[in-house]
Amino acid sequence: MTHSLNRRRLLSATAVLGGAAAFATYAGRPALAEPAAGGLEALERANGTVIGVFGVNLETGRTVAHRAQDTFAMCSTFKAYLAAHVLQLVGRGERSLEQRLPVTAADIKPNSPRTEPRVGGDMTIAELCQAILQVSDNAAANILLGNIGGPPAVTAFARSIGDPRSRLDRFEIELNSAVPGDPRDTSTPEALAGGFRAFLAGDVLAPPQRQLLGDWMRANETSSMRAGLPVGWTTADKTGSGDYGTTNDVGIAYGPKGQRVLLAVMTRSAADDPDAENNRPLVGEVTATVFPELLRA
Predict the structure, then answer these.
(1) Most CB atoms closer than 10 Å: which of 22, 66, 113, 248?
(2) Could you list the residue ranges that cross the membrane (predicted)?
(3) If you count DSSP H runs as helices and E runs as strands, how many of each does the chain have, helices first?
(4) pLDDT reported for residue 31
Protein backbone atom coordinates (compact mmCIF):
# COMPACT_ATOMS: atom_id res chain seq x y z
CA MET A 1 0.00 0.00 0.00
CA THR A 2 1.38 3.33 -0.99
CA HIS A 3 1.76 6.00 1.65
CA SER A 4 2.06 8.93 -0.75
CA LEU A 5 0.19 11.93 0.60
CA ASN A 6 -2.41 14.08 -1.09
CA ARG A 7 -2.70 17.24 0.99
CA ARG A 8 -5.63 18.49 -1.02
CA ARG A 9 -7.69 15.61 0.34
CA LEU A 10 -6.84 16.37 3.96
CA LEU A 11 -8.62 18.87 6.14
CA SER A 12 -6.83 21.03 8.65
CA ALA A 13 -7.25 19.73 12.18
CA THR A 14 -8.06 23.27 13.24
CA ALA A 15 -11.39 22.92 11.42
CA VAL A 16 -12.45 20.00 13.58
CA LEU A 17 -16.21 19.73 14.03
CA GLY A 18 -17.11 23.14 12.81
CA GLY A 19 -17.04 25.24 15.96
CA ALA A 20 -20.64 24.80 17.13
CA ALA A 21 -20.85 24.55 20.90
CA ALA A 22 -21.82 20.89 21.02
CA PHE A 23 -19.05 20.05 18.56
CA ALA A 24 -16.33 20.88 21.05
CA THR A 25 -13.01 22.15 19.75
CA TYR A 26 -9.72 20.91 21.17
CA ALA A 27 -7.33 22.84 23.36
CA GLY A 28 -4.27 24.19 21.60
CA ARG A 29 -3.49 23.36 18.01
CA PRO A 30 -3.76 19.61 17.32
CA ALA A 31 -1.13 18.04 15.13
CA LEU A 32 -2.23 17.68 11.51
CA ALA A 33 -2.46 13.97 10.80
CA GLU A 34 -1.80 12.96 7.21
CA PRO A 35 -3.32 9.56 6.49
CA ALA A 36 -2.14 7.31 3.70
CA ALA A 37 -4.35 9.13 1.21
CA GLY A 38 -2.88 7.01 -1.56
CA GLY A 39 -4.03 3.93 0.33
CA LEU A 40 -7.59 5.22 0.51
CA GLU A 41 -7.52 6.11 -3.17
CA ALA A 42 -6.27 2.61 -3.96
CA LEU A 43 -9.18 1.15 -2.00
CA GLU A 44 -11.57 3.38 -3.95
CA ARG A 45 -10.17 2.20 -7.27
CA ALA A 46 -10.06 -1.47 -6.29
CA ASN A 47 -13.63 -1.49 -5.00
CA GLY A 48 -15.30 0.97 -7.36
CA THR A 49 -16.34 3.13 -4.44
CA VAL A 50 -16.23 6.67 -3.12
CA ILE A 51 -14.94 6.69 0.46
CA GLY A 52 -15.54 9.43 3.00
CA VAL A 53 -13.63 9.42 6.30
CA PHE A 54 -13.42 11.67 9.32
CA GLY A 55 -11.53 10.55 12.41
CA VAL A 56 -10.12 12.18 15.49
CA ASN A 57 -8.11 10.89 18.43
CA LEU A 58 -10.08 12.32 21.35
CA GLU A 59 -6.99 12.39 23.58
CA THR A 60 -4.47 13.99 21.22
CA GLY A 61 -6.73 15.80 18.75
CA ARG A 62 -4.95 14.11 15.84
CA THR A 63 -7.32 14.26 12.88
CA VAL A 64 -7.68 12.52 9.52
CA ALA A 65 -10.13 13.42 6.77
CA HIS A 66 -10.83 12.22 3.23
CA ARG A 67 -13.89 13.57 1.42
CA ALA A 68 -15.09 14.43 4.91
CA GLN A 69 -17.53 17.09 3.75
CA ASP A 70 -18.98 15.13 0.86
CA THR A 71 -22.64 14.17 1.13
CA PHE A 72 -23.61 10.53 1.67
CA ALA A 73 -26.86 8.80 2.54
CA MET A 74 -27.09 8.25 6.31
CA CYS A 75 -29.09 5.04 6.11
CA SER A 76 -29.30 3.38 9.54
CA THR A 77 -26.61 5.49 11.17
CA PHE A 78 -29.51 7.84 11.98
CA LYS A 79 -30.67 5.30 14.57
CA ALA A 80 -27.95 6.44 16.96
CA TYR A 81 -29.36 9.97 16.74
CA LEU A 82 -32.85 8.57 17.32
CA ALA A 83 -31.83 6.61 20.41
CA ALA A 84 -29.83 9.56 21.76
CA HIS A 85 -32.82 11.87 21.35
CA VAL A 86 -35.12 9.37 23.08
CA LEU A 87 -32.65 9.17 25.97
CA GLN A 88 -32.51 12.96 26.09
CA LEU A 89 -36.31 12.95 26.51
CA VAL A 90 -35.96 10.30 29.21
CA GLY A 91 -33.47 12.48 31.04
CA ARG A 92 -35.94 15.36 30.91
CA GLY A 93 -38.74 13.21 32.28
CA GLU A 94 -40.69 13.37 28.99
CA ARG A 95 -40.38 9.65 28.29
CA SER A 96 -39.81 6.54 30.38
CA LEU A 97 -37.65 3.58 29.43
CA GLU A 98 -40.40 1.34 30.82
CA GLN A 99 -43.09 2.92 28.63
CA ARG A 100 -44.60 0.26 26.36
CA LEU A 101 -45.44 0.83 22.70
CA PRO A 102 -47.56 -1.55 20.58
CA VAL A 103 -46.07 -3.65 17.80
CA THR A 104 -48.45 -4.44 14.93
CA ALA A 105 -48.11 -6.52 11.78
CA ALA A 106 -48.28 -3.30 9.76
CA ASP A 107 -45.11 -2.09 11.49
CA ILE A 108 -42.93 -4.93 10.26
CA LYS A 109 -40.35 -4.11 7.58
CA PRO A 110 -37.42 -6.10 6.19
CA ASN A 111 -34.80 -6.59 8.92
CA SER A 112 -37.04 -6.44 11.98
CA PRO A 113 -35.62 -9.41 13.93
CA ARG A 114 -36.58 -8.28 17.42
CA THR A 115 -39.94 -6.69 16.70
CA GLU A 116 -41.38 -9.35 14.40
CA PRO A 117 -41.72 -11.99 17.16
CA ARG A 118 -43.52 -9.38 19.29
CA VAL A 119 -46.31 -8.60 16.82
CA GLY A 120 -49.62 -8.31 18.62
CA GLY A 121 -47.90 -7.32 21.84
CA ASP A 122 -45.72 -4.44 22.89
CA MET A 123 -42.13 -3.51 23.69
CA THR A 124 -40.62 -1.05 26.11
CA ILE A 125 -38.84 2.02 24.84
CA ALA A 126 -35.64 0.53 26.25
CA GLU A 127 -36.15 -2.66 24.24
CA LEU A 128 -36.87 -0.69 21.08
CA CYS A 129 -33.74 1.43 21.53
CA GLN A 130 -31.60 -1.66 22.01
CA ALA A 131 -33.18 -3.22 18.91
CA ILE A 132 -32.30 -0.27 16.66
CA LEU A 133 -28.75 0.05 17.98
CA GLN A 134 -27.75 -3.59 18.22
CA VAL A 135 -29.44 -5.27 15.23
CA SER A 136 -30.65 -2.17 13.32
CA ASP A 137 -34.29 -3.26 13.64
CA ASN A 138 -36.30 -1.21 11.13
CA ALA A 139 -39.76 -1.64 12.62
CA ALA A 140 -38.42 -0.57 16.02
CA ALA A 141 -37.01 2.58 14.44
CA ASN A 142 -40.33 3.48 12.85
CA ILE A 143 -42.23 2.85 16.08
CA LEU A 144 -39.86 5.16 17.98
CA LEU A 145 -39.99 7.77 15.22
CA GLY A 146 -43.76 7.76 15.42
CA ASN A 147 -43.58 8.33 19.15
CA ILE A 148 -41.28 11.37 19.03
CA GLY A 149 -42.72 13.27 16.06
CA GLY A 150 -41.27 11.56 13.02
CA PRO A 151 -38.13 12.25 10.96
CA PRO A 152 -38.24 16.04 11.51
CA ALA A 153 -37.63 15.44 15.21
CA VAL A 154 -34.31 13.73 14.39
CA THR A 155 -33.26 16.61 12.16
CA ALA A 156 -34.18 19.10 14.91
CA PHE A 157 -32.15 17.07 17.40
CA ALA A 158 -29.16 17.15 15.06
CA ARG A 159 -29.36 20.93 14.81
CA SER A 160 -29.75 21.27 18.57
CA ILE A 161 -26.44 19.49 19.17
CA GLY A 162 -24.56 21.55 16.59
CA ASP A 163 -24.76 19.20 13.61
CA PRO A 164 -25.51 21.46 10.61
CA ARG A 165 -25.75 18.78 7.90
CA SER A 166 -27.49 15.60 9.05
CA ARG A 167 -31.15 15.43 8.08
CA LEU A 168 -33.83 12.76 8.23
CA ASP A 169 -36.80 13.06 5.89
CA ARG A 170 -38.35 9.60 5.59
CA PHE A 171 -39.11 6.44 7.54
CA GLU A 172 -37.60 3.00 7.08
CA ILE A 173 -37.04 1.53 4.59
CA GLU A 174 -37.58 4.30 2.04
CA LEU A 175 -34.77 6.39 3.53
CA ASN A 176 -32.24 3.86 2.23
CA SER A 177 -32.81 4.67 -1.46
CA ALA A 178 -29.57 6.73 -1.42
CA VAL A 179 -30.15 8.21 -4.89
CA PRO A 180 -27.12 10.32 -5.87
CA GLY A 181 -27.91 14.01 -5.60
CA ASP A 182 -31.03 13.48 -3.46
CA PRO A 183 -30.50 15.63 -0.34
CA ARG A 184 -32.98 13.65 1.74
CA ASP A 185 -31.70 11.52 4.61
CA THR A 186 -28.08 12.57 4.13
CA SER A 187 -25.09 13.76 6.11
CA THR A 188 -21.30 13.99 5.84
CA PRO A 189 -18.57 12.02 7.61
CA GLU A 190 -17.52 15.15 9.52
CA ALA A 191 -21.05 16.03 10.62
CA LEU A 192 -21.92 12.50 11.74
CA ALA A 193 -18.65 12.21 13.63
CA GLY A 194 -19.46 15.44 15.43
CA GLY A 195 -22.92 14.23 16.35
CA PHE A 196 -21.69 10.91 17.69
CA ARG A 197 -19.03 12.72 19.71
CA ALA A 198 -21.63 15.08 21.15
CA PHE A 199 -23.89 12.38 22.54
CA LEU A 200 -21.33 9.65 23.30
CA ALA A 201 -18.56 11.80 24.76
CA GLY A 202 -20.07 15.25 25.25
CA ASP A 203 -22.69 16.72 27.51
CA VAL A 204 -25.76 16.37 25.28
CA LEU A 205 -26.99 13.59 27.55
CA ALA A 206 -26.92 13.44 31.33
CA PRO A 207 -24.31 10.95 32.59
CA PRO A 208 -26.75 8.07 33.29
CA GLN A 209 -28.28 8.30 29.81
CA ARG A 210 -24.88 8.76 28.14
CA GLN A 211 -23.58 5.66 29.91
CA LEU A 212 -26.64 3.66 28.89
CA LEU A 213 -26.33 4.72 25.25
CA GLY A 214 -22.65 3.73 25.22
CA ASP A 215 -23.41 0.37 26.82
CA TRP A 216 -26.12 -0.38 24.30
CA MET A 217 -23.88 0.59 21.38
CA ARG A 218 -20.96 -1.48 22.64
CA ALA A 219 -23.30 -4.45 22.26
CA ASN A 220 -23.82 -3.65 18.56
CA GLU A 221 -23.94 -6.91 16.58
CA THR A 222 -23.45 -5.35 13.14
CA SER A 223 -20.14 -3.49 13.52
CA SER A 224 -17.93 -3.38 10.42
CA MET A 225 -15.10 -1.19 11.72
CA ARG A 226 -14.14 -3.60 14.50
CA ALA A 227 -12.52 -5.88 11.92
CA GLY A 228 -9.92 -3.17 11.24
CA LEU A 229 -9.06 -2.31 14.85
CA PRO A 230 -5.97 -3.38 16.77
CA VAL A 231 -6.27 -6.31 19.17
CA GLY A 232 -7.97 -5.36 22.41
CA TRP A 233 -10.05 -2.51 20.97
CA THR A 234 -13.84 -2.36 20.83
CA THR A 235 -16.43 0.16 19.67
CA ALA A 236 -19.70 1.89 20.38
CA ASP A 237 -20.77 2.30 16.77
CA LYS A 238 -23.70 2.22 14.38
CA THR A 239 -23.73 0.87 10.86
CA GLY A 240 -25.95 1.72 7.91
CA SER A 241 -26.43 0.39 4.40
CA GLY A 242 -28.64 1.10 1.43
CA ASP A 243 -28.86 1.25 -2.34
CA TYR A 244 -25.99 2.38 -4.60
CA GLY A 245 -23.60 0.32 -2.47
CA THR A 246 -23.99 2.67 0.49
CA THR A 247 -22.15 1.19 3.47
CA ASN A 248 -21.41 3.23 6.59
CA ASP A 249 -20.11 2.84 10.13
CA VAL A 250 -19.69 5.60 12.70
CA GLY A 251 -18.70 5.52 16.35
CA ILE A 252 -16.04 5.71 19.01
CA ALA A 253 -13.36 3.02 19.29
CA TYR A 254 -12.04 2.30 22.78
CA GLY A 255 -8.55 0.98 23.44
CA PRO A 256 -7.34 -1.29 26.26
CA LYS A 257 -5.59 1.64 27.94
CA GLY A 258 -8.57 3.96 27.85
CA GLN A 259 -7.83 5.45 24.42
CA ARG A 260 -10.78 6.89 22.48
CA VAL A 261 -10.83 7.38 18.73
CA LEU A 262 -13.83 8.83 16.93
CA LEU A 263 -14.28 7.52 13.39
CA ALA A 264 -16.85 7.95 10.63
CA VAL A 265 -16.58 5.88 7.44
CA MET A 266 -19.13 6.36 4.64
CA THR A 267 -18.95 4.70 1.22
CA ARG A 268 -21.01 4.48 -1.96
CA SER A 269 -20.74 3.29 -5.56
CA ALA A 270 -18.40 5.41 -7.66
CA ALA A 271 -20.37 4.47 -10.78
CA ASP A 272 -23.73 5.44 -9.26
CA ASP A 273 -24.87 1.84 -9.69
CA PRO A 274 -28.18 1.38 -7.83
CA ASP A 275 -27.57 -2.36 -7.59
CA ALA A 276 -24.01 -2.17 -6.30
CA GLU A 277 -23.49 -4.55 -3.41
CA ASN A 278 -22.84 -3.31 0.09
CA ASN A 279 -19.23 -3.84 1.09
CA ARG A 280 -18.91 -4.21 4.83
CA PRO A 281 -15.38 -5.68 4.70
CA LEU A 282 -14.23 -2.47 2.99
CA VAL A 283 -15.16 -0.49 6.12
CA GLY A 284 -12.76 -2.67 8.10
CA GLU A 285 -10.04 -2.08 5.49
CA VAL A 286 -10.57 1.67 5.66
CA THR A 287 -10.40 1.52 9.46
CA ALA A 288 -7.14 -0.41 9.30
CA THR A 289 -5.73 2.12 6.83
CA VAL A 290 -6.39 5.26 8.85
CA PHE A 291 -6.10 3.96 12.40
CA PRO A 292 -2.29 3.97 12.60
CA GLU A 293 -2.33 7.64 11.61
CA LEU A 294 -4.80 8.45 14.36
CA LEU A 295 -2.65 6.69 16.95
CA ARG A 296 0.66 8.26 15.90
CA ALA A 297 2.32 10.40 18.56
Answers:
(1) 248
(2) none
(3) 8, 9
(4) 41
